[in-house]
Design goal:
The protein has 239 residues and is of the alpha/beta class. It is built from 6 helices and 10 strands. A hairpin with a 4-residue loop joins strand 7 (161-166) and strand 8 (171-176). Helix 1 (9-31) packs across helix 2 (45-54). The chain binds 6-phosphogluconic acid.
Length: 239
């Protein structure tokens, strides 16, 4: 696990873009393709914009395969859709090899099964798929992807994608499960803003219960890389 703090969200997004490009190059060189999971929410939008603006011809997008860590139960053009956010900020502007979207318009269980089937076809394996890079955000409540505190998806070990009821939001989200996230070659948390500072402190320095702060369940080999801005790091003592 490593923690990297940046002076501003622009600096953070710039560093994320360099990291994304470096991992894409490495994966394509070694394995012929870069299988990457995009984060939803609002934080990654700046990163996606920089990738579209400055990396359109510096990444071999034809060998980049895009997946999503989670999706809301909405159709693709809905304002809450993570696909819509990522498409408008990035995917509509680069010749990406293939976009594997979560079909949020389907009943959540069906959408989860369909996505798991999509992963099986893409990775051609019965073992837990290994993404080259998974980008994640966190909520102030410690959730990541759509793994919310004290929700059923946290306990799932035998599925790759599940429909996860989230009573607090009165909805059901579709999300990758912990085993898939922890099998990735690299996981990066992108976090910015003072409203996340206490949560970051609890996860990185506190004895937070992982069921109450699910981002703590993210433990890929070597640990996740935290790329955060100064405001989100403002309560960390060990820096
Ligand atoms: C989602 C995300 C979710 C997000 C956090 C942080 O679909 O909402 O996958 O896990 O990363 O909620 O969201 P913000 O970046 O908007 O603070």
């Amino acid at each position: 696990m490593s923690v990297h703090v940046y002076g501003s969200s622009e600096e953070l997004a710039g560093a994320d873009a360099r990291e994304f490009a470096a991992r894409a190059e490495e994966a394509i060189e070694e394995r012929g393709r870069f299988a990457v999971v995009l984060a939803g929410g609002s934080t990654p939008e700046t990163l996606y914009g920089i990738l579209a603006r400055d990396y359109a011809d510096r990444i071999d997008w034809s060998n980049v395969y895009v997946f999503f860590g989670d999706e809301r139960s909405v159709p693709p053009h809905h304002e809450d859709s993570n696909l819509k956010m990522a498409s408008e900020a990035l995917l509509d502007h680069v010749p990406v090899g293939n976009v594997h979207r979560i079909r949020g318009e389907l009943p959540p269980d069906e959408a989860a099964e369909a996505y798991e089937e999509d992963l099986r076809k893409f990775f051609q394996t019965e073992d837990v798929p290994r993404f080259d890079l998974i980008l994640l955000g966190i909520g102030a409540d410690g959730h990541t992807a759509s793994l919310f505190p004290r929700t059923p998806a946290l306990e799932v070990q035998d599925r790759w994608v599940v429909a996860n009821p989230v009573p607090r939001l009165d909805t059901t989200r579709i999300t990758l499960t912990v085993p898939v996230i922890n099998a990735a070659r690299a996981v990066i948390f992108l976090v910015e803003g003072e409203d996340k500072a206490e949560t970051v402190r609890k996860i990185l320095e506190g004895d937070a219960d992982p069921r109450a702060y699910p981002a703590k369940l993210v433990q890929p080999p070597g640990g996740p890389k935290w790329m955060i801005d100064q405001s989100a790091a403002s309560l960390l003592s060990e820096l």
